[in-house]
Amino acid sequence: MAPVDPAALAAELLDAYAERRLVHMPPTAREGGLDLATAYAVEAEIVRRRRAAGHHPVGLKVGFANRAAWRVLKLETLVWAHVYDDTVRHASDDQAALSVASLMAPRIEPEIVLTLKQPVSVGATDAGAVLEAVDGIALGFEIIDCVFPGWKFQPADFLASKGLHASLVVGTPLAVTDGNRAQLADALATFTVRLEKDGELAAEGSGRNVLRSPALCLGELASALARGAGSRRGPLQAGEIISSGTLCESQPIGAGETWTARVHGLDLPALTLRTTG
Does pTM top 0.70 for this prediction? Predict the structure, then answer.
């Protein structure tokens, strides 16, 4: 049985995205399958190719930040993939526009985005301790896309297909300080979010949906990286941004729509995204 060639699989999946072409059989469903370690090797090959094209990773996005799913999916921790200087954009006055014309089956996810000022303490299980490494938090929208029919895939497929990442829109950050750190540690576990499409409720969620708090999710990510987590990526660094997982069920999007996320219990402004063709 021939081993999976990470370079060949990265090329296949990147070409599928570029050509807006479905991949009818995910790698995990093929003869020999695809394990997480090899999927991280594919993700690393995608990073290499993106660097060669002049684009640089600026942080990570988290996937499967739900412990209830880990046993079913045979995961020991969350998974992650890189985000890049050309896929991350900062919304002006918390308003942004994004073309979805090049995407196949895009979906939107409201997330909390954390910017690091120093490496995260490995093994920290207290949200306040994790936030000591955080410079600011912001509301964000991750736009994801999938080349697998019906959005059916396993975690290794997710990794090998760049974490489904298409774009990350980041709103105005709230600085984390000595004065507000304890309050933020509590609020990140209890705040709620309302996702609206064209002014109507589309979905609701909470910070608890990402490992009980985006701060605790960041702590788990730091620990997973320290353990290797199938990759040689190395620890989190100052200046990186971390998109900590969706706060509610992702929603399909199309051109000509207006999406707004509003949070309650956290001092972040509403974020609005308008989609174009």
Answer: yes
